[in-house]
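Ticket #4471: structure export looks truncated?
Reporter: QA, pipeline team
Priority: medium

Steps to reproduce: submit the single chain below to the structure queue and open the exported record.
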Amino acid sequence: MTIAGRILSLRRHGSLIFADIFDGSIFEDKGKIYNHFQLFFSRNELDGEAFELFDATVDQGDLIEVTGPLGVTKRLGERILVTKSWRMLTKALQAIPSEFYGLKDEDERYRKRYLDLLLNDETRQLVEKRAKFWSAVRRFHEQRGFTEVQTPALETTVGGADARPFETHHNALDIDVYLRISAGELWQKRLMVAGFEKTFEIGRIFRNEGMSAEHLQDYEQCEAYWAYADYRQMYEFLRECYCFVAQETFGTQQFSIRGFEIDLAKEWPVIDYAEEIARQTGVNIWKADAADIKEKLHELVVDYDEGTVGKERLIDTLWKQCRKSIGGPAILIGEPKITSPLAKATSDNPEVVERFHFVIAGSEVGQGYSELNDPADQRARFLAQQALRDAGDGEAQMADMDFVEALEYGMPPCAGHGFSERLFAFFMNKPAREIQLFPLMRPKGRE
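Actual output as written to the record:
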């Protein structure tokens, strides 16, 4: 038998040496889970010169290859390889921390994530679960007839969300461009115009905003669009997706998240946006003006940008305060049109849009809506958003008139959804940075 891997520990006893080697795999033996394999080196079993060379040159952290028969330890009856030959594959010039002590400092764990992954089984399993999570998301969509697409990450006009973009310069074309803030929302809707009925994308998006336990600037997101469907069909579809993905990834639909006990298998109540705000704060968002909402935010001691000029941003801040007490899972509907420039208005109230949010553990972990397909209405909303940008709101949406032109060719009624790796972080009950393989860090010396 031949094994190659990294030496995690060495125990020298005169003419005998025991070692644990890690090759990246996990196996079960007699009901116990192991992430390493035991090696045995003896002067009696290994050529004397080869034994001396191993004893003199091999240290913890080195990568080696060993060959020999498989045996069983006398004391515990565990598998062990009796080494007959070995060779050095890579010499480690830096000492690997011991498994027991590992990396305790959080900053150091993120900076040297490769060591955290090597020494910490929980972190390693997180990576594997993350892969299963996105695989299940992809499988759910494909099994229901959605075509996976890849849309541009560099855009001349960003759209699809209220967020501040990263800016850069395209040297070949000599133009300023932005990193996308959505997984191709306006591009996928162009595909609806082109006759595709079901599309989805899983990809990286970038938002030049603040960091928190829930928010990062560079993360994975899934978005999908479904022609001839509305937001109610879409939220039923997405609810089924969450249940499927949770079961496939974790083997359960029950989670403890931020102090809330969550059961995805139970009924998800539907909550009205304005009614919930009125119930919790007494504010009628339809009648209140910006000054009224600011006064309530001060009363609730909620931080917000004092320079905010639009009522829509103040309403959104008030809602975010209210949602903190909602454990969920719940479905939020009835959002005002002024806070959702891409969603279709309801037929019975033109000031309300056909949009939903999923609320779990006091936060939004997914959303969708019936897409606006009236080019005149879309143009007017874009211009209203552009006015907010011109007044200083860096998160208001840009006016994408090329998209408006595409709508003029006719887009079928459709619904879309979007959710990010925040959902995975919530299922894991961990902060957003912890579930990324290599979180962005400020360079050393500039902390």
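Status: closed, not a bug. The export was complete when the record was re-opened. Leaving a note from the reviewer for reference: The chain has a mean pLDDT of 89.
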